[in-house]
Write a structure and sequence with these properties.
The complex is a heterodimer of chains A (114) and B (112). Chain A is built from no helices and 11 strands. Chain A is an all-beta fold and 114 residues long. With 112 residues, chain B is mostly beta strands. The chains are: A mainly beta (114), B mainly beta (112). The interface between A and B is medium-sized, with 23 and 20 residues.
Chain lengths: 114, 112
């Protein structure tokens, strides 16, 4: 069982370019999340999805979009990257049943926008 | 809204020292509480959790007790090892709101 996989592992991107970060889970979890982690700012929620076909905005959604066409995949798209989006991005998933709220995180994507 | 406040780091200890990382929270209702650990270059992983008041979560020698009266969930370990060097995140899950809130993380470095 792989858990959660993210791709790419790291990327250098020119400002203004479009980029999709991929996230796939094989645990059949209902809920999925995208966070960014920046030094001194902890984890900040970008977008989430409680179930396939639905998405919601987190704390810092501007400049990002997501889709949830099926249970397993939850891609994050930067339509036109800016340097302030340089960060480490983590995808996570959880089972939405009560007392099963543990989040399982992917290994992260390190993005540098120049 | 919900919030989690944890002890600012970095924390540096010698091997076999006692560890405490403080965590307090504010939330409506009765949240579940978590400690996650992030090793260098990796994603977060669950260390321990507690789902109701007075529950004690424990794993790998770490412990934390859900204290509703003080709204706290302090992380402790009696004797740390170099391999415990990592960033530790306190978090809560608000069942009513259906969302998680994370603290800012505390970096622990254990020296031999």
């Amino acid at each position: 069982i792989a858990g959660i996989t993210q791709a790419p592992t790291s990327q250098i991107l020119a400002a203004g370019r479009r980029m999709t970060l991929r996230c796939t889970q094989d645990m059949r979890h209902n809920a999925m999340y995208w966070y960014r982690q920046d030094l001194g700012l902890g984890l900040r929620l970008i977008h989430y999805s409680n179930t396939a076909g639905t998405t919601g905005k987190g704390e810092v959604p501007d400049g990002y979009s997501v889709s949830r066409a099926n249970t397993d995949d939850f891609p994050l798209t930067l339509a036109s990257a800016v340097p302030s989006q340089t960060s480490v991005y983590f995808c996570a998933s959880s089972d939405s049943r009560p007392s099963q709220e543990t989040q399982y995180f992917g290994p992260g994507t390190r993005l540098l926008v120049l | 809204g919900d919030s989690v406040t944890q002890m600012e780091g970095p924390v540096t200890l010698s091997e076999e020292a006692f560890l405490t990382i403080n965590c307090t929270y504010t939330a409506t209702g009765y949240p579940s509480l978590f400690w996650y650990v992030q090793y260098p270059g990796e994603g977060l992983q669950l260390l321990l959790k507690a789902t109701k008041a007075d529950d004690k979560g424990s794993n790998k020698g770490f412990e934390a007790t859900y204290r509703k009266e003080t709204t706290s969930f302090h992380l402790e370990k009696g004797s740390v090892q170099v391999s415990d060097s990592a960033v530790y995140f306190c978090a809560l899950f608000n069942t009513n709101a259906g969302k998680s809130t994370f603290g800012d993380g505390t970096t622990l470095t254990v020296k031999p």
